Amino acid sequence: MAITGKPLGATAGSMIFQQGGNAVDAACGMLAAVATMWDVLSWGGETQALIYHPELKKVIAINAMGVAPTGATIDFFKSQGMDYPPAFGPLAATTPGTPGGLMTMLAEYGTMSLEQVLKPAMQLAKGYPIEAQTANAIESNKERIKEWPYSKKIFLPHLGEKREAPQAGELFVQEDLYQTLAKLVEAERVALSSGKNRKEAIYAAYERFYTGDIAEEIVRSTREQGGLFTMADLAQWKVKIEEPLSVNYKGIDVYKLQEWTQGPALLQSLNILENFDLKSMGYNSATYINTLYQAMSLAFADRDFYYGDPAFEPKSPMTGLLSKAYAKERAQLIQENNDPTIGPGDPYPYQNGKNPFVHLLEKRKETLALHASELPVSGPEDPFLLEFQSGTTSIQAADAKGWVVSITPSGGWVPAVIAGNTGVGLSQRMQSWVLDERLNPYNLLAPGKRPRVTLTPSMALKDGKPFLSFAVQGGDTQDQDLLQLFLNIVEFGMTVQEASEAANIHSYQMQSSFGAHEIKPGSITLNNAIPAWIRNDLRKRGYKMDFQERTSGPLNAIWFDWKHGTLWGGSSNHGEDYGIAW
In angstroms, what CA-CA distances link 300 with 6, 8, 45, 197, 476? Predict the structure, then answer.
């Protein structure tokens, strides 16, 4: 089964499967394809994955998030008059992670050559009929794109005409990107001809990207356009193969990436919600929505203050944050009406420690007041919402041998700075750091550090076997949608397709990870199908509501039917996401 954000991307995964590849090969083929198609990411973005290894019978985490380059310091950005690193441009870019992530996954857990896996993406780079969604995004962002010469060259083939972006259905050609991918294949071929094995040859291509002529052009052109990359930044960066974090919810082990992502917030939410009888409340009743909303508010308040790169000091207090006892304490704070002042707790006593930032916690409410807005979300085109939900696609793959892959790649979305003649669009992830310790002392910017990102693939095992693999796009709403998809299946008995299209809620009572990091206490998006009596009840409980036709993600998921030995796929009707199974 192959599912991702574009029909052609899913087709690439299906092609890899038909050629005998495993789920890792297929996932890498889909990743290459959607990065080439600008499905809210490009090749210079970042890749995060969970892989179930059927022989080891364990979940493995892949951390291919880029880092802040040399010179990217708090003092530097403050000297530029910025409260946060910028959302766009060369100073928004972390080092490229997706090429390294793809090649590491393929080398370590795949079966195919890089050339085989990249073939569909290379065909797309030679020209494919661009979809209206991407073509129109280019047109609406063309004034910003014109600020960067290499972006203008690729994105705007009709300069001077009324419409300067490609038309929907026009063949979109990326010759520079094709040449970059061809160089990776060439490096692999040379290594194989010299006697290297499959794995070593893939890593030879990896080295060419991060230390060879491709790296040189990325660094040269990024600095030319005002960025900070150095050759050492690319050469010293490495993909990390990590242990995931997990909690058990009613006999199901749920896995997320570490606290350099927002993923543990879903685990915290499950721990809190385990203290309530959700099923008896009824799906999307006012009581259920109120309980769910406040549980997420509690978990995300901790995310906003405590999460950061575990490779740097101070270390996030994850043992305390994920303890059942801490969750029980937090659950007692949930009220009949919404509490817009919910803030982070103190998990340190639950790991036999003392909180070094009590002085910041005491000032937290006045700090957040500077970022809080009384205005509710005004609809899908609200600039706040476009930032809050920005970026990301998702990839799901599973095969008969038991390999399962869940990926949430992102970065380098339109409008992206393209790195010279490589065709590689650079990330915009720098904006996820903070420059003020009062907001989050664990996520302060530093060179070589990874930002606390929203990207968050998910996997669940039951009785030691894969139960559910799931991911979604949508910035800060990702773990909200993923939490609801999981509960829709486990608590309310929905099929995976029903759960992927269900009427989710979205909360904005948490700091945006983008732009000005705004927070909107009490604001909630509800599906149009929510009836009037529930709306009235929630209004009395203090919620500020807006309504949308589709509120499901878009979610992609695979559910494992061990009774019948089959896979059930789900792909939301929210966007262009698509799945192919055989």
Answer: 30, 35, 25, 45, 10
Which residues, in sequence order, are CB contacts of 20 under 8 Å at separation 6+?
A: 111
For 483-528, the pLDDT digits (tens) are: 999 999 999 999 999 999 999 999 999 999 998 899 999 999 999 9
In this structure, the number of other CB atoms found within 10 A of the CB of residue 352 comes to 8
Using alpha carbons, select from 106, 63, 101 the residue that is nearest to residue 202: 106
Sheet strands (E) in 200-289:
240-242, 245-249, 252-256
**Interstrand relation of 58-64 and 240-242 (parallel, antiparallel or unpaired):** antiparallel
Phi, psi of 195 (to 5 degrees): 100, 5
Residues 6+ apart with CB under 8 A from 326: 271, 320, 345, 347, 350
Say if CB 28 and CB 101 are below 8 A apart. no
Nearest to 200 by CA among 107, 287, 86: 107
Which of the two residues, 379 and 471, has the higher pLDDT score? 471
Answer yes or no: is pLDDT of 387 > 90: no
- Residue carrying the six token digits 């080891």: 56
pLDDT value, residue 247: 98
Please say whether the beta carbons of 79 and 24 come within 8 A: no
Q: pLDDT of 292-349, one tens digit each?
A: 999 999 999 999 999 999 999 999 999 999 999 999 999 999 999 999 999 999 999 9
- pLDDT for the residue 374: 79
Residue pair 186/115 in contact (Cβ under 8 Å)? The answer is no
Contacts of 198 (CB under 8 A, 6+ apart): 107, 113, 192
Q: Cis omega (within 30 of 0) on the bond before 531?
A: no
What is the structure's pLDDT at 384?
82
Strand spans (E) along 361-433: 395-398, 404-407
Alpha-carbon distance values, 508 to 361, 525, 573 (Å):
21, 8, 23
Which of 153, 150, 165, 144 shows the shortest CA–CA distance to 87? 144
Q: Is the peptide bond before 409 cis (omega within 30 degrees of 0)?
A: no
Question: What's the N-to-C CA distance of the chain in angstroms?
Answer: 7
292 vs 271: CA distance, rounded Å: 12
The Cα 576–Cα 131 span in angstroms is: 10
Give, for 137, the enclosing helix (H) or strand (E). Answer: helix 132-140
Tokens 């590849």 -> residue: 21
Counting Cα atoms < 13 Å in the Cβ hemisphere of 451 gives 30
Which among 474, 441, 430 has a CA at the least distance from the CA of 307? 441
Euclidean distance between CA atoms 262 and 282, whole angstroms: 27
Closest to 50 measured CA to CA, from 233, 298, 263, 367:
263
CA dist., res. 306 & res. 302, Å (int):
6
Nearest C-alpha neighbor of 99 from the set 118, 85, 112 = 118
Please, are residues 427 and 86 in contact by the beta-carbon 8 Å criterion? Answer: no
